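Methods — Computational structure assignment.
A single polypeptide chain was analysed. Its primary sequence is given first, followed by the predicted tertiary structure written as structure tokens.
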Amino acid sequence: MSFPKGAHSAVLYEYLRKYQEDPTSRVFAPLAESYRKAGLIKEAVEIAREGLRIHPQFVGGRVALARALFDLKQYEDVILELRQVCRDVPDNLVAQRLVAESALLLGRSEEALEAYKTLLYFSPSDAESAKMVQELETTAYQRAPQSLRKDFSPASQFEAKSAHEVLGSDPARKREKWVQKIERLQGMLQKVERYRHQH
């Protein structure tokens, strides 16, 4: 594979030379990233996929591929490529951010919130993630059935209401799905906590 004209970087040439000498090495990951930065996104995807056929468990290669796919706006593929990475290495902040932003762009706010919360857990000073968590939680709160939001009127703060009044026109199925999403998020955060204590 030829190197793009105009990208006269000794480091990039070095990656290419090493890759041509040994196409089975893990240098495919930084080489793919170099091609991506040079604007040759499809070539970056090609190199990353070739490398991952030989090193399917290499996290760096998986992230390099996901970065290129993100640039191509293939957000669903980004999430598919990084799902296992985020499970196995939850403190990989690049992977978590790519998943968060991809899910957000796909309109999958619960999945985005999960990834942003993980980012914030491992990087508490991340102001951008904190802002996104707040915005997504506010949106989720507004969409939640009234019974889950625990809204009380000032006049009757702990007034008992019938199930029919609480649920109103929200189907039971929607409420159950919301509860399941909350439980799934709690389970995921527990896994992250266990992972953090083990490392």
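Note: Confidence is low (pLDDT under 50) at residues 1-8, 151-169.
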